[in-house]
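Question (not urgent): is this output format expected?
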Amino acid sequence: MPTETQELKQFKELLIKITDPNESEKEILKLYLEQYGITIFDHLDLVDLSVPILEKLDAIRILITASKEELQ
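Got this back:
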């Protein structure tokens, strides 16, 4: 299994900070991040987390999408 890149590790840590999950949600979010990595935003319909966490993840997804569109 390849080692986790520093950027991916920082991405995961940042997402956890931004979403501010409780301890049980944090563990679940970590598992989803292990499974999906940066593509977690493409799989939000498969992620079983609380609505506030999903809303934060969706907001981040929208911001990333808007930023990519502006750059094009």
